[in-house]
Queue: 2 jobs
Job 1
Amino acid sequence: MILKSHASLHWREQLKQAITQVDQLAERLTLDPQALAAQIHPQAQAGHFALKVPQAFVERMQPGRLDDPLLLQVLPLSAELETPEGYVPDPLQEQAFNPLPGLIHKYRSRVLLTITGACALHCRYCFRRHFPYSDNQPGGQQREAIVDYLQAHPEINEVILSGGDPLSSPDAHLARWMATLDAVPHIKRLRLHTRFPVAIPERIDDDLLAWVKSTRSQLVFVLHINHPQELDARLIERLQALRAAGVTLLNQSVLLKDINDSALVLAELSERLFDAGVLPYYLHLLDRVQGAAHFALSPTEIETLYQQLLSCLPGFLVPKLVREQPEQPSKTPLGWPFSTR
Ligand code: SF4
């Protein structure tokens, strides 16, 4: 079956048409609706973190395959209802580093800003899947408070806009934030952590490129791509437009069971990223968030896989294997030999 492309639609229209119903997903992928429904949990189509996947992402899935690595990232499996010990709602304890609504100040020289709680798709392993976004979307007055905070902390030279996905916001809103942050003299870099262009490549359009080109700060986009199948020609073309606008492109992945837990898959991902002008940056161990335990690998599996990956790639294409720990002043790189326990 050839899936009809939505590439000609504006990204907002594509977002509106995102799939939220299991039946619809089954039809698009020529899957047996009953077989699909049998795998998912009862709240899969309701609540704040229900099934959500744009057609552009579905177009990269293999029809007829329940084990497709892109499908498995978005499918609310019944396994999410298991609650093994150590899997908690806020594994990084971010709410303890939240001095103002929308601002997380955990690392010395950089802060994280959440300007929206919305995402283009819902990744089932997301460590912020329980984050209280409704309390963390700064409005006008809070924007001033954030600027005051940044002015009072000259050691902060980088602001990271992160998930929810900052590119869910309208371009006018993003342009206002860029101008606000550009006005703080000691901010050198603005970094956007985004999966939106992966979900809907047409998010990189002329309106976005306009504010990208207008900022005085160095701009870095950290994409989130987990599997080479996510990188299609449509996405690569848009990434080239970003590069032409002067944006540095990095990628981070999460190591996920049955999705990218193979050195060959990860090596192919690094090669394809580099071909597209994107540097592999981090390979994250799964954060132990409630509902995501079925994506975890054992320490032995991780060690074996990373050792194989080191032998497959030149060093500059090997993403750093890291774990985030709430009490640490940075991400924790896992050296070699390392302990993943
Ligand atoms: S796009 Fe990012 S923030 Fe949003 S659900 Fe996926 S991993 Fe989480």
Note: The radius of gyration is 20 Å.
Job 2
Amino acid sequence: MKFPLMRNNILREDLDAVIEHLKQDDPILTHGANVRAFEAEWSEWLGVKYSVFVNSGASANLLTMAILKIRYPEGGEVITPPLAWVSDVASVLQNGFTPVFADIDPTTLAMDPAQILSKITDKTRAVFLTHVQGFDGLTDELIDELQRRNIPLIEDVCESHGATHNGKRVGSIGWISNFSYYYAHHMSTIEGGMVCTNDPDVYQQVRMLRSHGMVRESNDENVRAAYIAEYPELNPDFIFAYPAYNTRNTEIGGIMGRSQLKRLDQIVKRRTENLIRFLDQIDSSKYRTDFKLEGSSNYAFNLILKEPDDALVERLMQKMRESGVEFRRGSAGGGNQIRQPYLKGIVPTGHHLEFPETEHVHFYGFYIGNFPDLKNEEVDELCAIINSV
Ligand SMILES: Cc1ncc(COP(=O)(O)O)c(C=O)c1O
């Protein structure tokens, strides 16, 4: 592929940092000092008190919904995006909640705040908002209204590291936030994810949920002491507070994360410059260019037709294939999640049609790789290929 979705996301310097670690006699490879250091450095960068490093963004979603389940064992509704990744919906279902979908705002691709507010009922337990493709999906009105109604905001920032809202990094605004470090994302620990929060109770619970629900994984002495006192007949090393998971990462991931974090701000800057160059050049009579750019930290170039045009889509795909342009149709996660087989029988038949903005992206939207290694001349060439269709 001449224009892949990602190139050189893991650099020599990241690998060298791993090799340095491996040169030690008997190096620790399971999670240890580097994981703890990465969590602390990430918290500092993001502007939150606590972060827990896990093995994927999907695991971050899963543990976050497991936290919600601890608060609401009886279940309830979670307002969920139809345009996101499968794990944003799967984690809701896996924890016994009902996903209630809200259509997207075409300028951010995140759920439209007005749609979110219109879906709130007395059963709403949380709004699980994904910042899609690097755009800031928040508005002040949404934040204020959720606060007023006492509804927790959970942010999925897996595609939007470094995006900001009013100068504050997204992922530091809601109750809990999730990140992914999979290969094509802003930074990569091979596989990896993070759960972030300012809530000390959530922090202790996520630490336990990450490691089999084990109480000794809490780093709060009072939490451990309370369980030990309540269960004197149990070996303190083996008290399982929750029926949970093993979603730990490793020292290798921690070392790579620490190495990559050093250049994350630079990565965000370069991705944004590329996006602006791309939007300045693509044909704005055919493609949407009116995205909300303020605070954005682009994940990938979004090429979304202004109007439905099946013939143009076919020509565009053919041209991109023959020109070596890798692309994903439907933007984030393959388009409208509500169309997916795993939701059959869970949502009413034909429910996907009630989300026209998401449906438009499903059929007439694409994403194309944007990454720091992409040169200006390549962005220009890419735009020329697209505009030639
Ligand atoms: C919005 C969103 N959430 C969650 C995930 C899952 O992350 P991972 O691939 O690390 O499991 C992704 C993955 O791309 C994503 O885009």
Note: The chain has two domains: 12-261, 264-387.
